[in-house]
Amino acid sequence: MENNYCVIMAGGVGSRFWPLSRQAKPKQFLDILGTGRTLIQQTFDRFSKFIPVENILVVTSARYNELVQEQLPELKEDQILLEPFRRNTAPCVAYASYKIKTRNPDANLIVAPADHLIIKEEEFIRQIKNGLDFIANNDTLLTLGIKPSRPETGYGYIQVKEKEDYNGLDNLYKVKTFTEKPNLEMAKVFVESGEFFWNSGIFLWSLPAILAA
């Protein structure tokens, strides 16, 4: 467990959830469902059930530093990584990976957005733990897909090919293609084909694997 780390990406401005989500306080810092916990707090709660708190890092914009400190007082200052400018996932991952390398070069990483709503939490945690076991024993990169329930133009899609057999797990696939936010007609084709999953934006890999990629 000491080799497992979680990087929570919390730098987005939440533009798709406007007007509730504003640049000054985007959706990851809001209690959208009225549960008493914001989305970033729920994300922290979820991963801290099986990741040591000291191994959880948040990457966010410098403008949201105080919000993260306020909502996640469990984190020390060096667990909040500040980006001077808002960037996409790749620079965020690279930044966090090199920071973690100084602490533990053998780390296994979960990279996840701060604003996901997870209903079946026990099943989610089970799948994440299976993924951690997989990346700890395989030099590969893993991403989580979601079976689409409808054609959706607001999500990215993952096309898969053959299944992989690993210790009895029956839901591992090799990735064929990634497609970002298709138009409606293409999304319908994707869903009807049965070959595509929504891209959850959650990734798992070992530190040596991602730094070599």
Automatic annotation (TrEMBL):
Alphabetic keyword roster: Nucleotidyltransferase, Transferase
Highest taxon listed in the record's lineage: Bacteria
Domain (Nucleotidyl transferase): residue spans on this chain: 7-205
A UniProt-annotated Pfam family: NTP_transferase
Keyword Nucleotidyltransferase in record: yes
InterPro entries recorded: GMPP_N, Mannose-6P_isomerase_type2, NTP_transferase_dom, Nucleotide-diphossugar_trans
Gene Ontology MF terms: mannose-1-phosphate guanylyltransferase (GTP) activity
Entry keyword Transferase: yes
A biological process from GO: GDP-mannose biosynthetic process
Name under which the protein is recorded: Mannose-1-phosphate guanylyltransferase
Biological source species: Mariniphaga anaerophila
Lineage of origin: Bacteria, Pseudomonadati, Bacteroidota, Bacteroidia, Marinilabiliales
